[in-house]
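Field reference: sequence -> structure
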Amino acid sequence: MSSTKIPRGAEEGARETRQRHLEAVESTDWGTQLAAYLESHRASLVDALRRLFVQPFGSFLTCLVMGIALALPMGLALLLENVERLGGSWQRAAQISVFLELTVPEAEGLALRERIAALESVQGAEWIGPEQALAQLQGYSGLGDALQALPENPLPAVVLVTPQAIEREALEGLRAELAALPGVEQAQLDLQWIERLGAILRLGERFIFGLAVVLVAGLLLVIGNTIRLHIENRRAEIEVIKLVGGTDGYVRRPFLYAGAFYGVGAGLLAWGLLHFGLDWLNEAVVGLAGLYGSDFALAGVPLEDALLLLAAAVLLGWIGAWLAVARHLRQLAPR
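Structure field:
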């Protein structure tokens, strides 16, 4: 009885060929699974969009309610920023007035200003000479003739210091440091005004934050109730899908896309409401500012904030839909 011996080279070639075949089969299976996964997402996306357009008026009202809930806190935040810009920035309100001694020459005063500006805790330092200070006092006080009758200028040079930090402890420390410099007569800081301004702004920020939390909670309830109605309308269909082996992810997917689409619509509506609302209000603000000789105008919605608003709306719609489906998913088992 004879046997045929397979050459070593042929055996290795057959092994390599079979390995390449198995890799090709695995690659084909992976590609098929990926294509099926993407097709499932595409079908869920198209189905969610189609169901929204079946009831356009109801979908629009849902997006409008969500858009108003998003536009209110952001609109108030933009108004607070404009009010802060109108009243001056924190740093400008926290300026420290450094009065120099009358005997300090201008050259030494300018050198002192450079020294102050080089400090790490200082954002900027502005030099105001005695003549400039006298001219400003004449313009603000209305006592121009009386001040001109003085034999000499009684006002010292001043360095207006804008600090980096706005906390009380940091400002007190910087004021003490400036007052100890040679040639400085007095360093003055109106802490009471700073504290009042800070309290007003903190109150506004806290109010806006609380309003945003309440409105976001209401928005999640709105989207959750809307998705719950979609689930109830498709209960029989979902039970059949789960009966034939449909997974929870497959059931959940179209509702998540629906929530995201609601978020897109709400974000665009909120963007539009803010844009047109600020433009409408800006007409009255410009008119009022013109009566006071000011060119102040409300700033619009920055593009970065608008895109962030749209992304937040989509995320909230997605989260609201996910919570609604997660709550009812255990009730969707076939009976």
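Note: The chain has two domains: 41-88+196-329, 95-188.
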